[in-house]
Each structure stands twice: as structure tokens, then as C-alpha cells.
Amino acid sequence: MRKIIQIAGAYIGVIVGAGFASGQEILQFFTSFGLIGIVGSIIAAFLFAFLGMQIALHGSILKTTSHKKVIYTICGKYIGIAVDILITFFLFGVAVVMIAGSGSIFQQQFGLSPIVGSIIMSILTILTLLLNVKKVIYIISSVTPFLLVLMFIITAYSIFTSSGDYVQLETAAAAQSSAAPHWLLGAILYVSYNIAAGFAMLSVIGGTVKDKKAAGWGGLLGGFGLGLLILLINIGMFANLDRLEGADMPTLLLATEISPVVGVLMSIALLGMIFNTAVGMLYAFTARFIPSETKMFKGGVIVIGILAFAASFVGFTILVGTIYPITGYLGLVLIIAIILSWIRTRKQNTIAY
């Protein structure tokens, strides 16, 4: 059971980056559609659970140390080549986004130069990656309960202090910019680009587990955990949407309203989530080229970490606007491939019986 919970925590930790925990992504993909966005968040939970279970299961069966084997198994030889190249490229890109994002948080919350936050995040990420993979998974999963507790507190506070009625809140939701033209498409796109970013590390996490059932259950539980976070953030923001207009980090605003101490804790949680994602992405990227059990891996981590820091100077906003939309389309390809692979496996098992 401990291994299942650890896998679930690591899955959540890798997926939840700055935009997720801050509420900005949830606002655009779910809350902006009003009350029906809650249905979207429930659908997203089931998608995250199903996809997480399949990816972790494949990783465990193949005993993979990088995402390559899982990609080729699911997508086939020819499509697998293209998907492998794109995922590898975006692993580095998302890691760069996280490093740039940490600089933005240090500037906004603490009034420091963005380069200070980026340097600190780069050093912490590199130092963590010099550990073995099981320690990396433990570190990533350990931050998740902290964020869940904070989100329960913020959501409960938001519901009990909400001053707007249903009509006011729906009007405020309609005024928000949405990331998709329809609530259902918004839910699917949100899952797709997150699963594209988290696919590689989840494959590696699954590969560390000998018991394939434990790996599958870990992916399933982690997916539902992600869904619970989406639901909590969504409800909390919808209940106070009339007060959140123009907020870059809605959950941080709600946390600060409860208490400055809670606001600081939320800032720490945001940085923790960025750290988790940066570690997961850079680990999976490096492991794609250099096996993690070799001596060369640590040297590769240092070089790639420095390159990611240098690339972060492009700017957080530009990086997000360039990398995330394309990652969404890649995620759709992965979702379709995973579903088709699942159908093929079920048919083969039926014929075998």
C-alpha cells in the first residue's frame, strides 16, 4: 500500500506545476464555464486515472528506465519515432518553463530579481537529480499531501465566505477568458497537455515497481488525486469568482485572504510544485539519453540543468505561449494511442481465454 501511495503522490507531484496549483489553468479550462465546469473536472479526474493507470502499468511491465520503450509499445514503430522526438523536446521545454516560473514567483511574492529564483530552482533541481531515482520519487511525492491540505482549507474558506449568488457567479464566469470554446473540449485539452508533460516521468516511476498491480493502482489513485485537486480549486474559485477578477494567481489570493501565514505557505507550496515538475522533466529528459544507473548520468544532469537555466532567460510568458499549446496536440495523440493499446490488449486477453 505504501508503494501505491508513493506512486500516486509522485504522479500528482510531476503533473501539478505552477499554473495548476496557482489556479490560473483551472480558471481557464474549467471555472470560466461556470457550474458545468465542475462536470468537466469530474471527467478530467476519470481521464487522469485511466491514463495514469495504463502508463504506470506499461512502465512496470517493460521495466523501463526511460519513456522510449513505453512510447514504442503504445504507438508502434513509425508513429513512436515522431512522438518520442516530440516528448523528449517538450520535457526539456517544460523544465525550462518551470525554472522561468520560479523566477516570476520570487519577483511577484518576494520582490527579488527573477534571476535569483531561477538560480535557486536550478541548483535545487540539479542537486536532487544527483540522487538515485527512488529518492527522487520520494521527494516528489512528499510535497503532495501538503498541497492537498492547503487546498482543502482554501476551498472550505471560499465556500463559507462566498458573497455572490449563483447568477452573479455565472455572469463572472462568462466574463472570464476560456482556453477552449466548449467545457468538454476544455477538460480533454487540459488532460492532454498535462499527460504529454507527465508521460515520461510516470513511465519511469512505473518502471521502478516490480509489482505491476501496485503500479497500476498507483497511477489510478494519482489520477483521482489530480481530479480531486482540480475539483477543489474549481469549486473554491467559482464560489468567489466575483472577487478574483484580474488575479494572476487566484488560489494565492484566496490563501492570503485567510491569513498572511496561509499566503506564505501557499507560495511555498507553489514553489514546491514547480520544483517537483522541474525535477521530473529534467530527470526523464536526461534518462532518455543517458541511463540513470551509469556514472555519466550525474554529469549529464549538471550540463542539462545549466542549459535549462540559460534557456529560461527567454521569459516565462513567451515559453508558456509557445510550448504548452503544441504539447496539448501531442497529448491528444498519446491519449488516442493509449486507448487503442488498451482495446488491443483486452481483445488479445479475450481471445486467449
Quick overview:
It comes from Bacillus chungangensis. By secondary structure, this protein is mainly α.
* Text of the CATH class: Mainly Alpha
CATH-assigned fold name: Amino acid/polyamine transporter I
Please summarize the sheet with the most strands.
none
Class by alpha and beta content = mainly alpha
CATH architectural group: Up-down Bundle
What is Rg?
19 Å
Which word captures the global form? globular
The figure for the number of domains is 1
Uncertain segments? none
Taken in chain order, the helices and strands follow as HHHHHHHHHHHHHHH
Task: Describe the 3D structure.
This protein is an all-alpha fold and 353 residues long. Helices cover 83% and strands 0% of the residues.
